[in-house]
Design brief:
Low-confidence stretches: 1-19
Structural class: mainly beta
Shape: globular
Order of helices and strands: EHEEEEHEEEEEEEEEEEEEEEEEEEEEEE
Mean pLDDT: 92
Number of strands: 28
Strand content: over 45%
Distance between the termini: 22 Å
Number of helices: 2
Strand order of the largest sheet: 1-16-17-18-20-24
CATH architecture: 7 Propeller
Largest sheet: 6 strands, antiparallel
CATH topology: Methylamine Dehydrogenase, Chain H
């Protein structure tokens, strides 16, 4: 059995100078925030698909904030009160833990219709505060040909991760509304047109290029770096990073079908008791725990699947209605849970 190693921790130390990360002070021209990713030194990347861009801001949140569990009932109501809008005028888009401090950041849309973007920080003390988005250090990179369709009006950016001094951005491009992975070096200069990703979709029984990656995590399998990505309906795919080149078309390897009529919402990777796992939240399948030791040798799925197939997984029955999750520390996760009246933020042991 080959050991599967996470690349995130090893690459956190990539050379991004805190004193000179290419940022300038001002007000970033944000139209939306639907995806978050942290870099080192409290740098936070904000995916803005409405404007077809990524904005990075220096949060200044770099000191450890404590080790307390974070549990908040009706986080959405608290955020609505903080922002001065009604509870039904708040949409929680994404959630990430700042590895520099341990505080939790939430991307928010406030108001009706397209709404306005906001960023909120949940402190380890349980306090909730707005993060200023005016007169702060920031930088912007525009995405060439960002994709939008009627079904995917914000499909230009679906998920992001920062590793090795580079920002990985998944979404759609306007090239036949193709599923695209972009690798953007930081400090920002410009973004390339990205790599079109083709996959075999077992539930649909065909090759596809127009299904966007919903969530992903970077991984190292043996000596090679991969993106492990999850798509609607729900193929799990490994994509070799070395093949991600501007303008190329890469076929990912489908290593699991987790069931159709389902959409993945979020994914984290973690180690426990000497083994490594993915934990993924889904709309119809709940939270799934996937051992990763089979990833290196998994047989590709290349024919129609009517149920589930591929690498093994386990449903975590006591985790219901989870819509976002992230690692809080090496032993715990933070989850956003839909309740009858709104959304709760909870700390749980990693299963």
């Amino acid at each position: 059995m080959r050991q599967l190693l996470l690349i995130v921790g090893a690459l956190w130390a990539a050379p991004v100078g805190a004193a000179d990360p290419g940022l300038s002070k001002g007000t970033p021209p944000l139209q939306s925030i639907t995806a978050l990713a942290f870099g080192p030194d409290g740098l936070l990347f904000l995916g803005d698909p409405q404007a077809g861009q990524v904005v990075v801001v220096a949060t200044g949140d770099t000191r450890p904030a404590g080790s307390q569990a974070v549990n908040i009932e009706r986080l959405d109501a608290k955020i609505a009160a903080l922002l001065g809008v009604g509870e039904k005028e708040v949409r929680l888009q994404d959630l990430k833990v700042n590895p520099a401090s341990g505080n939790v950041y939430v991307a928010v849309t406030r108001g009706t219709g397209a709404g306005q973007p906001a960023l909120v920080r949940v402190l380890r003390t349980g306090e909730v505060e707005a993060v200023p988005l005016k007169e702060i250090p920031f930088a912007v990179v525009k995405l060439p040909d960002p994709g939008k369709t009627q079904r995917e009006p914000l499909g230009a950016i679906t998920c992001m991760a920062f590793v090795g001094g580079r920002l990985f951005v998944a979404g759609l491009s306007n090239e036949e509304f193709a599923s695209t992975l972009r690798i953007i070096p930081f400090p920002f200069q410009q973004a390339d047109k990205g790599t079109v990703i083709e996959i075999y979709h077992g539930s649909h029984g065909r090759l596809e290029t127009n299904a966007p990656i919903r969530t992903f995590t970077p991984y190292r399998i043996g000596d090679e770096d991969y993106i492990i990505a999850s798509y609607t309906c729900t193929p799990l795919v490994k994509i070799p990073v070395k093949e991600l080149k501007p303008g190329a078309k890469v076929r990912g390897v489908t290593i699991a079908e987790l069931g159709n009529r389902n959409q993945p919402l979020d994914m984290i990777a973690y180690s426990k008791d000497g083994r490594e796992y993915l934990l993924t939240a889904n709309t119809a399948r709940g939270v799934l725990k996937i051992p990763t030791e089979e990833f290196a040798t998994a047989k590709p799925i290349t024919s129609r699947i009517t149920d589930t197939a591929g690498v093994r997984f386990e449903k975590i029955e006591n985790l219901q209605n989870v819509v976002q999750l992230d690692k809080l520390d090496d032993a715990r996760a933070i989850i956003l849970v839909r309740t009858g009246s709104g959304f709760d933020l909870r700390t749980i042991p990693l299963p």
